[in-house]
Amino acid sequence: MEVKIKKSVVKKVLVLSSVTLLLFYTLYQTYKFVMHEVKTEPVAMYTLKDSIKTKGIIVRNEELVYWDENGTLMNVLEDGAKVSRGGKIAEIYHDEKQASCMVELKELDEQINQLKRLNVSSGMSLRGPDYIDKQINEEIRNINLFGKTARYKEFCQAKDRAIYLLNERHVVMGKTDNFYKRFDELENRRKELIKECGSSIGEVLAENSGYFVSNFDGYENYLNYDDVKNLKAGDVNFDIQPSNKSQNNVAGKIIKSVDWYIISKMSEDDSMRFKVGENVNVEINSAFNENVPCKVVSVNKEEGASEVVVVLSCDRMSKELSMIRSENIEININTYTGLTVNKSALKESVVSKTVNKDGEKETLEKKVK
Asked: What tens digit of pLDDT does each residue of 159-179 get?
């Protein structure tokens, strides 16, 4: 009886040991499968541009604005501003002292209007300090951005908005002691200037609607705007050196059409990458790295010439774009975006295909990644 009991115990121990070993083996295999080290490779998003760098000549539909030189001229429009036919471009004053007086008067009016807006907001504004703080921080970021990219107009606008928001915060917080004193000072100074400045003795009006530019470079009629699509390499001097000119009887110029052109010259091989009617983007270096959408309107090759003229049509206008003439440009034909990975991480495999050749089957193999 004792022997049977011992055999039963031994059997149970063996079974339990086997089950335990099996369990450990299963857990080990599971761990090995789950925690198996997989070799990885770093990847990065990359954008590739299909582009051509070249020289571009800007052609616009422009006309100079003349005046009679009797007095001192003061422009009332910023460069790139729209003007309608018969709209005021400039005012004429007796002398520079009177013109300077009017400049100061207009600056005072802007400050007074700003204080009036702040006074209204003190009783009506629903914006709290936290909300205004967020806007101030945003304008500070804009100031930093526009300063780095040399966008002077936007820089000044962001600075003025930041100052206004700082003043508005003071108003919302009830700190308005100095505003009323400042308002009275500006109003008193304004009354003095009105007596000193007098009124203008004349004005310069636009004969056509368009975009106003205060300077000119002498190349306004260098190329025929109406015939620009037919230009060939021999028709254009790409070595021109435009510069701002001064002429006493010229008040500026009007760009009469929103459509303008970029004339570029390149090799025949490069020109074959362009198709008439397709859209491209042009990076113009001097226009604060502005990216301008354009369309290919003609690709002209002169018989016997080694270079080809590509003409692009554009319709975006800004202060910076209204003032350029001869620039280094990069024409982006297409853009491709994808992931980059180390070449060694690519796996090769063999793809086979069976074909009939002269009535016999033949297997072709090719390595692919």
From this structure: 888 877 887 777 777 666 666
